[in-house]
């Protein structure tokens, strides 16, 4: 009798201990798909490394899906709960009459993140210098290419008439193609642009982000069904992102580089810091997660100018600011 009682008591103690421990480690796992691995997304990596997601009870499983199409496929098929990708992709999905819309709920970057890099030094560069050149462009229909064309047109340059525009190289292979090929100009993200400059393979001569103005370049989005079913988790996710945005705004480029170094192990920390500093100086990192209407309209204008706007989707159809505004409103509480 005593033996059975002792076994039963031990079992109860183990159950209580296990339950108590489990309660303390009860986390929501979220599959997060990023469209590419980019220094442009520094606040996201800060949110992970500084434990801001963990503070909100979220365990992030990050995957890099390498391309807008693949990222949206992952999101819509259930391979990801949240996607970090260009807002234009939500418009493309909407135009295909998707039953489950992709809703933009938190903005991460608010300018284009590419820089114009030339093979040769251009100390007296003017945009007219590009005319007649071989220009290695980005993927058709993607934000880098659309912003690039938009900026060129603002400088009275016809991208398809005044340039020998190359658009047949995959995103991941563009740096190598520029380095080994005969293109005179290319659009590159950081830290690749600064690395090329350091190694003498290219020279940064202009910023497309500074030229194009505010635009919701990369945002976090999720399916409308997920948002409706688990709004609280999306809210906690947004709180973590906003905490990271505030941290990035308050800290130096070097401090940020120290935190996100694990995501860019092949890049020297000095290059990371200088690249982050360049993004900070031109206001690329959004200071809060609210995607405003002016930015959305600028996005559609850029897409329309490039001939890639399939339909005029109202701001209210694909953008949810309620969660982000609530997060900002409660940040002091």
Automatic annotation (TrEMBL):
Parts forming coiled coils: none
Keywords: Signal
Major localization class: periplasm
Compartments it resides in: Periplasm
Domain of life: Bacteria
Signal peptide bounds: 1-22
The keyword Signal belongs to this UniProt entry's keyword annotation: yes
SUPFAM superfamilies per the UniProt record, alphabetical: Periplasmic binding protein-like II
Pfam families assigned: NMT1_2 (PF13379)
Keyword Cytoplasm: no
Family note: Belongs to the bacterial solute-binding protein SsuA/TauA family.
Identification of the protein by name: ABC transporter substrate-binding protein
Annotated organism of origin: Lentibacillus salinarum
